[in-house]
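Action item from last week, closing it out:
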Amino acid sequence: MSDKSIKKVVLAYSGGLDTSVILKWLQNEYACEVVTFTADLGQGEELEPVRGKAQAAGVRDEHIFIDDLREEFVRDYVFPMFRANAVYEGQYLLGTSIARPLISKRQIEIAHEVGADAVAHGATGKGNDQVRFELGYYALDPDIKVIAPWREWDLTSRTRLIEFAEAHQISVPRDKRGEAPFSTDANLLHTSSEGKVLEDPWEETPDYVYSRTDHPEDAPDTPEYIEIDFERGDAVAIDGEAMSPATLLAALNDYGKRHGIGRLDLVENRFVGMKSRGMYETPGGTILLTAHRGIEQITLDRGAMHLKDELMPKYAELIYNGLWFSPEREMLQAAIDHSQQQVTGTVRLKLYKGGVHLVGRKADVRFNLYSQDVVTFEDDAGKYDQRDAEGFIKLNALRLRLLGQRLRLKK
């Protein structure tokens, strides 16, 4: 039963078939005014046509929001996540997950600006995104009303969705007629594909699914070298050229695309309980992760580095599960950011046929913890007395020797 008290709702709107149907369904089912919000997160497509689609559906001009959030996305969400080296289940760089809190945040802001009673999204009842969006909504506005059409309506198949669209003169893209081969989600960090041809985890991903990376076998036969500068854990320049966060990530995407870097075929454990198979392309992010770990190698203390690695799976899981705005994620972020104060320097990378290889790293004396004078196999001029190792080993061996003596007495 629809809540008839809802008079205005802000819809996360892409202009595609699903959200176009949702827009009309909201108007019919709730008899409410719909405000559309489209976020430009660098998905690589022209978004201005979305305005015309919303206008054609009866949305007033002042209620159509198309916001360029690319810099905020990378600066305030992607970069903080990469300071943690966050990877979910050992492989996934969280490209979809990290976009949802920003969309939720801006959607709630718009709801407050226009005096909306509710927000709506197009995520299905089987996926993680419904959780991510709604946890974000409620964290930012505990009293907001949320409409999730996929959990309410009876349009339970692609065929019924198209029938609804045609009955209400909603344009149906030709590639959406019948069963779509797979679904995609994209932003500046990655592209994800899932469903249909990807549902059988035994079958190799068809080449036509890939959109962000050239095939590694077709990549240049000559390696390409790049240098990335870091300041306090964030990448700030490529080959000495300073760039904004979004511009830098876009440039790394270009390098990654050309060399076939960042493809991932993954069966993951969704928060809602099922396993799903997806194909991810994260070209620039894959390069950035290797580079960040490289600069940490010479600037981050061993204890801090090992503790970060212990905390990282929990941090990644919080983002995957939609808990970006939780106090525990903020606590972990504070610790991670503190660890990055001295993570400043330059790494050199070799890009070649699907691989990104760390081949050099350097930092000036203010940040560098690597001492060639101490580690050298040549004369270290008394900087390290090897005789000290004997006492160190005996102290660490004491408990093992005591255990050994006890076992010997039992025989």
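Closing note: The mean pLDDT is 94.
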